[in-house]
Amino acid sequence: MRSYNKTLYALIAILVIYTVSFVAFIMYSITNFAFSDFYKRLDLRRDLAAERMLNGNANQKDWSLSYLEELNNQHEFIVEFDEQTDIVNSSGFNVSLWENVNKQGEANFKEGNTFYSTKFYQQEGKNYIVGVSAENYFYTHHLRYLQNLLLIALLLGVLFVVVVSLLVKRSFIKPIHGLIDEVKKIGSENLYLRLSEDKYKGVLHKLANTFNGMLNRVETSFETQKNFISNASHELNTPLTSIIGIADLALSKDRTIEQYKDAMQKIVDAAGNLEKKTSALLLLARTGYERNNKLNFKPVRIDQIIMDAEMTVKAINERFHIKTDFSMLPDDSMKLKVNGLAPLLQLAISNVVSNACKYSPDHTAYVALGAFENGVLILIKDEGIGIPEKEISYIYDPYFRASNTQHFSGYGIGLPLARNIIKMHDGELSITSSLGKGTTVRIELPTFTPI
Amino acid sequence: MIQRVLIPTDFTVNSLRIVLEYLENSGNQQVELVLTCGYNLGESISFLLGFTLDDHLAEMQNGDFLKGCEIIKSRFKDKVVEMYADFMISKNRRYVRNYLKGCQIAHIVVPDTFEFQHTKNSFDVVELLKTTVLPNMPAITPVCMGEDGLQTQDTLDGFFFRKKWRFTYE
């Protein structure tokens, strides 16, 4: 900021110097012109006076005035002097100015407001200086006026430059200060806050946008790390419960070998599921530690992931039904490829789908998939209890559970986790809900574009 | 030969269901779809001078509508060669004739039941095309919109889960 101020003051100084030199130049040029012009006019009158005094009739003074106007306070004078340049005779000449007179030729000089023009003449062995003096009306009046005008203009100009520069500086600095203040408010406890991009224009808008993008990544990473233990417990809980349940049931009484085999198979399946989840969670734990936050993303087919997620959900609870609408699948299967990690995406989608099943009286979730130009759209819809309108803004907060979910088991972890995973994949997860009628989760993920 | 088909629209996602119904129930003929909306330009000279089709279309088409169009294009990639929106700016009979002739419209799709959302300046193209009698009028193709109620909210949900949940996988 200090160097910014310095630059500004340097610019103001340059502008002021320029204005002052401009004014000085104008004043100098016009004064110079006024002087030389006036001396020319005096020279002409001096020559005429000399002609009249030395060659013509000295009393016939007015003949020249019919051709030339008389100047302000115009006086003619003639001085006779000897070889030692001492004045012998003078008429109408102020002897104190004798030093300024050139005794050999012409001289122009100024005393106060009176201008003098003199010339040396020799006649009949005598030396004469003939001269004319007059006041320069233009200099005394008009030039003074111009001088005052320029001074006032200069002062106003400098004032204008300074005020405008400071205003411009303020208008430049103010939004930056605003940006700084907004950034200062964001801390680890409120990472969800974003800079208001619409307030800024041009490059600052871009800056705010970039900063928000960075905050998105940081928040996702931070939340995933912060909630890792709860995420892990949440995800591992269900398969573990199912393993324990199957084992308990198998051990509750003596069974046939077939029944034990069947139970063991179920336990192996559940353990397999558990292993899948563990590897997905390990991938999640690595978020933020990989360069560019991209965990070796690979092109994966989203329809396959959705089908896998559905299998997972059904494996958890046999009462859950999932109805899938693939009628809008694109002709080109390349459009279904997204760049990401299959286990994570599966984790996210299965969380959302199992929520949809869990909160519906008929335990049915409707899943649809379509592809637009640059991405895929996944809709997961249910006809369940819905979310109260007032609470919809809090549903992404970890551990938050809507007020109408008391009769359902859960921890409020699945949806924030799913959202973070989608955000990690540069996608978007949004929810529309109507209380008592159902909820629709809309997931958009960018399509994989080969470089 | 590719045929150009006029489909009325009001730039809502729900209105794209007419497109879907038409595409699903027509043959394999390659088509170019012109989504047309009736728009009254009015009599203000400044508006007439300042009116540009592209700007106005950009204003009318929201993100979901455009995404919906893209989804349809991806779904019917081999069938839909091109798909774009346009305005009919007058109800004048000659204008309608010239519009249909100039655009070389081969078919006009008319839904049996659909309530278009009208804005201040829009007018009903379906009504206009139904009532205008012209020599060499393009063939009118009626589409049955079914009994599914339309979404109260104009979102992309309406695209899916139609016709008694027509599922491909469970």
Automatic annotation (TrEMBL), chain A:
Single GO term (MF): ATP binding
**Superkingdom as given in the UniProt entry:** Bacteria
Catalytic class of the enzyme: transferase
- Histidine kinase domain span: 231-449
Topology relative to the membrane, per the entry?
Multi-pass membrane protein
Q: Which UniProt keywords apply?
A: ATP-binding, Cell membrane, Kinase, Membrane, Nucleotide-binding, Phosphoprotein, Transferase, Transmembrane, Transmembrane helix, Two-component regulatory system
Is Transferase a UniProt keyword of this protein?
Answer: yes
Domain (HAMP): residue spans on this chain: 170-223
For this protein, what is the EC number? Answer: 2.7.13.3
- Enumerate the catalysed reactions: ATP + protein L-histidine = ADP + protein N-phospho-L-histidine
* PROSITE patterns for this protein: HAMP, HIS_KIN
Question: Which Pfam families did the record assign?
Answer: HATPase_c, HisKA
Task: Give the UniProt subcellular location, in the record's own words.
Answer: Cell membrane
Q: Which residues cross the membrane?
A: 7-30, 145-168
GO CC aspect terms: plasma membrane
Protein name (Swiss-Prot/TrEMBL)? histidine kinase
Its taxonomic placement starts with:
Bacteria, Pseudomonadati, Bacteroidota, Sphingobacteriia, Sphingobacteriales
UniProtKB/TrEMBL annotation, chain B:
- Give the superkingdom in one word: Bacteria
Protein name as annotated: Universal stress protein family protein
